[in-house]
Amino acid sequence: MTLPGSDSKYLLAIETTCDETAAAVISDDLQVLSSVVASQEELHRRYAGVVPEIAARAHVERLLPVIDEALQRAAIEPAQLDLIAVAHTPGLAGSLLVGVSAAKALAVALDKPLVALNHLHAHIYACRLAAAKEIFPCLGLIVSGGHTSLYHCHSPTNFESLGGTIDDAAGEAFDKVATLLGLSYPGGPSISKAAESGNPKAYRFPRGLANQKHRLNFSFSGLKTAVRYEIWGPGQPVAGPPPLSPQQVSDIAASFQFAVVESIVEKTLEALKQTRLKRLCVGGGVAANRLLRERLQQETARLRVELHIAPPALCTDNAVMGAIAWEMFQAGQLADLELDVLPGLVRE
Description:
Number of domains: 2
Oligomer: single chain
Structural class: alpha/beta
């Protein structure tokens, strides 16, 4: 990496929306000088999902050391920073509060401007960083543990919501189905691994909202319930290991994964049709799923649509994607010290 010039400006981006404590230093020419992520995966593993109170307390313990390490790796003193950015929506309320409080304190102490980030918009901007070229306008698809959303991204600072999950997100469904199958947390990688030796057509699981092709919302709760009934039967309690052979586990994993991926791909293709956009940008933790990436590559090649999928390191939550703050800063979109968290997803 070429070091930025002496006249470069520096951004400190902070990410605490869910269960990853992250900070990054990025120059105004989008060079990443450092990126530090403290994972909480082990803390939540025993619960097979993120526990909000545990996540918030872990952020309190880890955020300042993470910021300090990010500054040290970048060889930047706090006084050299020109901009502070923090994700304030959407996410877990307690987790967001930790990051926003720290960012506001730094902005006051260093007398630097503050930018408030939408975590989902930043996921799409990760594609801009990886592509190292302009990607806007584009259709944006975010597939993560908490969100499955589609955006018409007119510019880096103008995102129009087209649709999203009305219940469970794809990543959450992966985690819960993995638990039903007796697989490890997090569910995405474990289901993907089990599916390698499974038949994706062994079970015909439902596709949520499939009969509403013109609508761009997603639903995965019915799919999750269908898997539960396939394993345990309606009205039967879920107790102990699933009564399945290893091959049945693989077949159900493969069939579930196939249903999720096809639901996402079908809605995305409909969004491309409606918007007539010729560029698709994909981010979020589930965007690392191999089958999803393969299906999107196949369909976009068929339609001659330019495809950008964030690299795996930028799919999961990180602060590097907070580089979108430079675009917002240039557009004059600054926050003040009244900045509050918005845990719920706001439809723009």
